[in-house]
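User: Run a structure prediction on this.
Assistant: Running it now.
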Amino acid sequence: MQKVLKTISIVSLLGISTLTHIYANTFKYHPKNKQELLKLIRDNNVYLGDIDTSKITDMSGLFWVVPKYQCEIIANNKEKISDEQEIARIERDYQICLEVSVQEAELEKIKREDFSGIEKWNVSNVKDMSYMFAYTTSFNQPLDSWNVSKVKDMNSMFAGAESFNQPLDSWNVSKVKDMSYMFAGAESFNQPLNSWNVSNVKDMSYMFYSSSIEDNPPKWYKGN
C-alpha cells in the first residue's frame, strides 16, 4: 500500500512539474519588472497575450504615453497648492510621469492601438495600477477576469480613456485605498459598480468627474 502511495506521489509531482513547464512555455516573454514590461508593450510587434506578467507588482502608468514636457507642467502645479495631501499626490504623479514619458518625436511610434490579449494577463501580484490606461483613447478591452485583489492604488487608472466601457463588477477591490480620478473623463463608461467593496478606500475624489455616470454614480460613492 505504501509503495502504491509513493508511486502516486511521484507521478503527481511529475505531473505538477510538467504542467508548470507547459505553462511557462505558453509565453514568449517573461519580464521581471515594470521597465522590462514597458519595453515590450512599446513594441507594437509584440502581442500582449504572449507576455507573462505574473512577476509584475507595479503597472502604474503602463500605457500612459506622455511627452516629457508635460511632466514639468505637473511639477509646476505643486507651487500653486498649499494642501499637503494634494502636494504629495502631485509629487507621486510627477515620478510616474518621469518613468513613462518619452520625447515628443517618439509618441506616435510607441503609441499602442492593439490591446488584444491583455485580458489574459496575470495581474494577481500587482499592487499599483494608477494611471495604467490614462488617456488611452482607443482602449476598450474586457478586463473582468482580472484578479486585482492585491491592488492598493487605482488613482486615475482609466482617466481620459474615452472609449472604455467594459464590465468590472466582478473585481475584488477590497484592498484599494485610492480611487481618485479613476474614471475622470472616461466619457463612455457607464457600467454598474454597486457590488464593489470600497470599505478601505480613503480617497475617491473626482472619481467619476466628467464621465457618463457622474450624475448617477454607485450608491457607495461619497462624492468630490
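The first helix runs from residue 2 to 24.
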